[in-house]
């Protein structure tokens, strides 16, 4: 499609014109429920000759999204249960989520907040709502870390991010500000000196969690952005989602985790996919996930090991569900090695 590499994709007509959806595909029913967004950088990564392309699978809508199961829910990780004021989720004592914005540069088909993000989603906090959210953080001295998520906080302009960071800088008990974002991978041109400066705040340490699910997402442009962020004093960690047909094999996961480490990004979370509506086609079983993370242990360096986590539905927080490698009682245990071999271990 002429110009699709310049402006990206936002509608079914755009998808049809880019040969990413057939005419009369019925996908308008999906578009009526969930936002569509594919940036030019992601478009360039899609292999249109591969019907199972792992990049396309993450971003191109399918009719599978109309299939829901009884366990799926609009708020799978229970944000609303822990939201004392609009835009804040206070699930754990020492940290809060600050969701200033509910739009993203791309719309991932497996998104756990798909009922909240997009043009029809919860929108951007108003000035008064942002004041109340900052006021909540300032009034709770136990809050050590503020995690900016959404939506993707890096869709905000550097000016607005700078304003936000200046306000957080004025709260002495907040020491860490963490951004969760897809932008360095899907819209790397946004990462420039202005943006990097905007993410820093006097007296605070900034972490940025890079969301990527396949090693092909770590492009030269993305790598240049990582370098800029690190040169600006921002620590990088990773987050990925374990997704059927995208990265549910040990070779792909190993290449992804090594790719992070080669770029000085510390592997952090590998999420088990949440029970978001219409995402069953992405879910692997927990046993499959545990087998994959066990296989990673023997195969690649300890530096490359993510924590395999499940967000317990209902808002009960994250649980580490990596292969339970030890079982037993009264000082007598059986320990499982990375190849599945079992060994006795006795304490003292
Ligand atoms: S970038 Fe994050 S919040 Fe936005 S659609 Fe993707 S998973 Fe959802």
What can you see in these coordinates?
The chain has 348 residues and is an alpha/beta fold. Helix content is 29%, strand content 18%. Helix 11 links the parallel strand 6 and strand 7. It contains twelve helices and twelve strands. Residues 104, 107-108, 111, 113, 117, 151-152, 182 line the site of iron/sulfur cluster.
Identify low-pLDDT runs.
Answer: none
Strand content: 15-25%
N-to-C series of helices and strands: HHHHHEEHEHEHHEHEHEHEEEEE
How far the N terminus sits from the C terminus, by CA atoms, comes to 69 Å
Overall average pLDDT:
93
Percent in helix = 25-40%
Q: How many helices does DSSP assign?
A: 12
Placed side by side, the strands forming the largest sheet appear as: 1-2-3-4-5-6-7-8-9
Radius of gyration: 21 Å
Q: Which structural class fits the helix and strand makeup? A: alpha/beta
- The geometry reads as globular
Bound molecules: iron/sulfur cluster
Number of strands: 12
The biggest sheet amounts to: 9 strands, mixed
């Amino acid at each position: 499609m002429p110009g699709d590499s310049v402006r990206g994709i936002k509608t079914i007509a755009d998808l049809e014109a880019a040969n990413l959806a057939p005419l009369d595909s019925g996908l308008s029913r999906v578009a009526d429920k969930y936002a569509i967004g594919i940036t030019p950088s992601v478009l360039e990564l899609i292999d249109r000759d591969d019907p199972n392309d792992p990049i396309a699978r993450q971003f191109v809508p399918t009719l599978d999204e109309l299939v829901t199961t009884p366990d799926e829910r609009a708020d799978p990780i229970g944000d609303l249960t822990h939201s004392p004021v609009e835009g804040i989720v206070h699930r754990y004592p020492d940290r809060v989520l600050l969701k200033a914005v509910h739009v993203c540069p791309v719309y991932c088909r497996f998104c756990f907040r798909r009922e909240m993000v997009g043009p029809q989603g919860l929108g951007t906090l108003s000035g008064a709502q942002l004041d109340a959210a900052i006021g909540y953080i300032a009034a709770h001295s136990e809050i050590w870390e503020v995690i900016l998520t959404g939506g993707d906080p890096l869709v905000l302009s550097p000016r607005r991010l700078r304003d936000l960071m200046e306000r957080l800088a004025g709260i002495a008990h907040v020491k860490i500000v963490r951004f969760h974002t897809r932008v360095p991978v899907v819209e790397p041109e946004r990462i420039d000196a202005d943006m990097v400066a905007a993410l820093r705040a006097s007296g605070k340490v900034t972490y940025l969690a890079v969301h990527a699910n396949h090693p092909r997402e770590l492009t030269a442009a993305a790598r240049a952005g990582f370098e800029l962020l690190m040169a600006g004093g921002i620590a990088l960690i990773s987050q990925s989602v374990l997704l059927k047909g995208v990265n549910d094999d040990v070779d792909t996961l190993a290449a992804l985790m090594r790719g992070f480490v080669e770029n000085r990004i510390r592997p952090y979370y590998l999420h088990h996919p949440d029970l978001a509506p219409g995402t069953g086609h992405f879910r692997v079983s927990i046993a499959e996930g545990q087998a994959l993370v066990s296989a990673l242990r023997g195969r690649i360096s300890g530096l490359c090991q993510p924590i395999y986590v499940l967000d317990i539905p209902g808002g009960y927080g994250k649980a580490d569900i990596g292969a339970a490698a030890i079982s037993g009682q009264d000082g007598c245990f059986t320990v499982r090695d990375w190849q599945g071999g079992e060994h006795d271990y006795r304490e003292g």
